[in-house]
């Protein structure tokens, strides 16, 4: 178990397509997931994708209990999601402020689909399928984007709604 270095925007690995996991029970994969949880916890993150620590595999983790980075946020179940597939439900989208551990100190207003269904497998190989909405759906969309080399600023519609959090949210 270890806190790993988080790659920052500008690192070309963050722009790559990650590969599907083939062996859920590989010891490397279990170690990767432990490191991801340690790394996410050390930064108070809401989620982390394997490419953010330089591993180009389709693994994301997320979970929000009481999180100082998102004080008003709804909670999200702590989840390991391997080889995720997303299905967008309906056309409704909503804008929301996002941050990313690979883009420290910044926030951007990003439209996301309001409702999604996602499935994949967990770290034991059990199938996971859920419907999600609101912040939960946003977190999953954000993390799964990382697996396709997409960072949230690429989805900002009005770039004026992107900046440093200590400037943006000054009352
Ligand atoms: Ni991110």
Structure characteristics:
alpha+beta, Peptide Deformylase, 6-stranded antiparallel sheet, 3 helices, 20% helix
Describe the structure.
The chain is 20% helix and 34% strand. With 171 residues, it is of the alpha+beta class. The protein has a single domain, classed as Alpha-Beta Complex (Peptide Deformylase). Strands 1, 2, 3, 4, 5 and 6 form a six-stranded antiparallel beta sheet that branches. A hairpin with a 7-residue loop joins strand 3 and strand 4. The protein starts with 26 loop residues before the first helix and ends with a helix. It binds nickel (II) ion. Nickel (II) ion binds at residues 100-102, 142, 146. The site of nickel (II) ion (NI) has 5 residues, from helix 2.
Summarize the structure.
With 171 residues, the protein is α+β, with helices and mostly antiparallel strands. It is built from three helices and six strands; from the N terminus they run αβββββαβα. Strands 1, 2, 3, 4, 5 and 6 form a six-stranded antiparallel sheet that branches.
Q: CATH top level?
A: Alpha Beta
The small molecules bound here are: nickel (II) ion
Radius of gyration: 15 Å
- Name the helicity range: 10-25%
CATH architecture, by name, is Alpha-Beta Complex
Pairing-aware structural class of the strands and helices? Answer: alpha+beta
**Secondary-structure element sequence?**
HEEEEEHEH
Weakly predicted, low-confidence segments: none
CATH fold annotation: Peptide Deformylase
Mean pLDDT, nearest integer?
A: 95
Q: Please, what is the oligomeric state?
A: single chain
């Amino acid at each position: 178990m270890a806190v790993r270095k988080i790659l920052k925007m500008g690192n070309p690995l963050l722009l790559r397509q990650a590969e599907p996991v083939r062996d859920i029970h590989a010891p490397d994969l279990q170690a990767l997931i432990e490191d991801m949880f340690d790394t996410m916890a050390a930064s108070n993150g809401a989620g982390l994708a394997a490419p953010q620590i330089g591993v180009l595999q389709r693994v994301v983790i997320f979970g929000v209990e009481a999180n100082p980075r998102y004080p008003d946020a709804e909670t999200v179940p702590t989840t390991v999601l391997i080889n995720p597939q997303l299905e967008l439900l309906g056309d409704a989208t909503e804008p929301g402020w996002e941050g990313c551990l690979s883009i420290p100190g910044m926030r951007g207003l990003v439209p996301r689909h309001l409702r999604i269904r996602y499935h994949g497998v967990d770290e034991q190989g059990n199938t996971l399928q859920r419907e999600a909405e609101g912040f939960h759906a946003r977190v999953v969309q954000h993390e799964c984007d990382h697996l396709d080399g997409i960072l949230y600023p690429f989805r900002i519609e009005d770039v004026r709604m992107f900046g440093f959090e200590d400037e943006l949210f000054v009352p």
